[in-house]
Amino acid sequence: MNDPGDLAVFLRAKRAALPPEATPLNGFGVRRRVPGLRREEVAQLAGVSVTYYTRLEQGHSRHASDEVLLALARALQLSVTETEHLLDLARAKRIPAAADHGPETVSPNARTLLSLVATRPAIILGRRNDVLAWNDLGHALIAPHLPADAPDHPSTQPSLPRLLFLDPQARALYRDWGKEAADYVAYLRLISGKYPDDEVLTRMIGELCVRDDAFAALWASGRVGECVAGTKHMIHPGAGHVTVDFQLWAQSDRPDQRLEIYELRNDPDDSRVRALLTAPTLLAGTR
């Protein structure tokens, strides 16, 4: 289960990140010892008592109503994704974790969708960002140094967070590794709020915090995010410098499994797509 302190940490982080001048408060020009809003200012903006809000920030109240939580979200100017995370952390009735805490298996519908995408790189991701399946181009783009059948076996399913932080070859694929890393960690924090009983996810986060200082720092920042579309700038061993647009599609029957499709920019004759499949064989990295 999520510790009630998770909600407290999140509230404190968002309060500290909101400058008073971005709010309708009066007297924000007074000298402050710490950045961000004071507790009483958040309470005033949200229309709740200072005592009640203080209890929330101290982890002493676990049953805040949705109305109060949404008022706090407005006061703290949370994004839609951050508001969703706030609700996940605070609600007494959590979304249950899957009965099987081990590796996920790709759903038949997701595999069918993947089979329809042949001319573009595509992969199926589980909720922990494990690769559950990929087509030839998806494999060639994301992890050409891993065996093509790696997603087919629970013991070798590629974990994209582990690859990104612990595998130098996977890390070298991204020209803007810092942004890629920050987006991954923000997504993992969002998912950890939705599946607080997922022991596999918890162990992975703990492992990465211990083994990689950059991950630990990003996790401590408390940022929450969900990236369903965007752009990746890559240095690929076969295709060279490429800019890749991506789009994520959730499955209606299994929303925790997502189809991610990539489109290489400025490739009218598909030459770089074909070059992906001729990438040199690399030494296997750390899963």
Structure report:
The chain has 287 residues and is an alpha+beta fold. Helix content is 43%, strand content 12%. The chain is built from 13 helices and 5 strands. A hairpin with a 3-residue loop joins strand 3 and strand 4. Helix 10 packs across helix 12 and helix 11 packs across helix 12. The protein is elongated and about 65 Å long. The C terminus is likely disordered.
Strand percentage lies at 5-15%
How does the overall form come out from the CA principal axes?
Answer: elongated
Fraction of helical residues: 40-55%
Q: Uncertain spans, ≥5 residues at pLDDT below 50?
A: 280-287
Order of helices and strands: HHHHHHEEHHHHHHEEEH
Structural class: alpha+beta
In whole angstroms, the N-to-C terminal distance is: 27 Å
DSSP strand count = 5
Characterize the biggest β-sheet.
Answer: 5 strands, antiparallel
**Distinct helical segment count:** 13
Order of strands in the sheet with the most strands?
Answer: 2-1-5-4-3
The radius of gyration over CA amounts to 21 Å
Mean pLDDT: 83
